[in-house]
Write a structure and sequence with these properties.
The protein has 336 residues and is α+β, with helices and mostly antiparallel strands. The chain has 7 helices and 16 strands. Strands 6, 7, 8, 9, 10, 13, 14, 15 and 16 form a 9-stranded mixed sheet that branches. A hairpin with a 6-residue loop joins strand 15 and strand 16. 32% of the residues are buried.
């Protein structure tokens, strides 16, 4: 392969996220190769599967003619032009201007009230539009920090308070405080059934051996502890719009609870409550059905308290329930 035109932007820097045009001439050694195979040596930062997808999308021309068959054979002397669009993963660390709901901010840290539906950190299926992308645009120092300063996460469909470091000193101190259980985190949740007035779940959590997308209570997992306090309980009947059918349906019991985390394992509250047969409303992954008008897991990080990592000042924040959970809570209260 002979390079005629090669974009000078190196892979891994911000400019690499933009499409690049490269033109190659097929030499004798490459004669008869598949088109997708031919492109690999000249585009080493891209996988063959990505190059194959670019061909199928019409991003490759041979002697000026668009090609869509990755298996097409190339011949000596032909000129191959490719527009190398970035992979989804390459967008993960690109700054994106976002309207971040900031509750508190100084030069060391910020507290964010994350809306339900926001992904905190890029991952498969969500490489852009995440809180991390927004943080990279929010302040210049984020690019120099691990995970742009994110020290703990909330699930995509969980709303509420998060703390984010803005300096390496703050990130390190906050991470240590969370590990030492010195950060107070409380959540409001709506669950199926009527649990005891108060109880504690202290069960190890690890990857579910039968379903890798789930976590589970397993002996080999990491220690986890959650305190649960029932605040309200009542009955509600599924509403379909058919008055006669709705009247014939049995009312089911639901409760509003306050959960206090002593540890911060993945999906901890969801797993612990499900293990006691009180799954979160609308949490399909752990057995919760939609109810009370909720279509996402009914979980909200309502209170956050910690010592400022630099000044030592005691900080405490509270976020009211978002509209969907507030309405569901009121509906439950009406049926109490």
């Amino acid at each position: 392969m002979d390079d005629d035109v090669l974009a000078s932007t190196p892979a891994g820097v911000a400019g690499a996220a933009k499409p690049q045009e490269r033109v190659f001439t097929v030499d004798k050694a490459a004669h008869g190769q598949r088109l997708d195979v031919f492109l690999v040596p000249g585009s080493p930062e891209f996988s063959r599967s990505h190059l194959k997808a670019l061909i199928e999308d019409g991003c490759v021309e041979v002697d000026g003619k668009p090609q869509t068959q990755p298996s097409r054979k190339v011949a000596q002397g032909q000129r191959v032009r490719v527009v190398l669009k970035p992979t989804a993963q390459s967008q993960a660390f690109v700054a994106e201007a976002m309207d971040i709901p900031v509750v508190f901010e100084d030069e060391h840290l910020m507290v964010v009230n994350k809306p339900a539906g926001w992904v905190v950190h890029p991952a498969a299926g969500n490489w852009t539009g995440t809180l991390m992308n927004g943080l990279l645009a929010h302040h210049a120092g984020a690019a120099e920090l691990p995970r742009a300063g994110i020290v703990h996460r909330l699930d995509k469909d969980t709303s509420g308070l998060m703390v984010v470091g803005k300096t390496l000193v703050a990130v390190t101190a906050l991470s240590r405080a969370i590990a030492a259980r010195e950060v107070s985190r409380k959540y409001l949740a709506l669950v199926h059934g009527v649990p005891p007035a108060s109880f504690t779940v202290e069960s190890s959590i690890g990857r579910d051996p039968t379903a890798r997308v789930r976590m589970a209570v397993v002996p080999s997992g990491k220690p986890a502890k959650t305190d649960v306090q029932r605040l309200i309980d009542g009955e509600w009947t599924i509403q379909t719009g058919d008055a006669r059918a709705d009247a014939a349906r049995p009312a089911r019991a639901y409760s509003g609870v306050l959960c206090t985390l002593h540890t911060g394992r993945t999906h901890q509250i969801r797993v612990h409550l499900s293990s006691r047969r009180y799954p979160l409303v609308a949490d399909a992954v752990y057995g919760g059905a939609q109810a009370l008008g909720m279509t996402r897991q009914a979980l909200h990080a309502t209170r956050l308290a910690f010592k400022h990592p630099v000044t030592g000042e005691a900080l405490s924040f509270e976020a009211p329930l978002p509209d969907d959970m507030a309405q569901a809570w009121e509906t439950l209260a009406a049926g109490a």
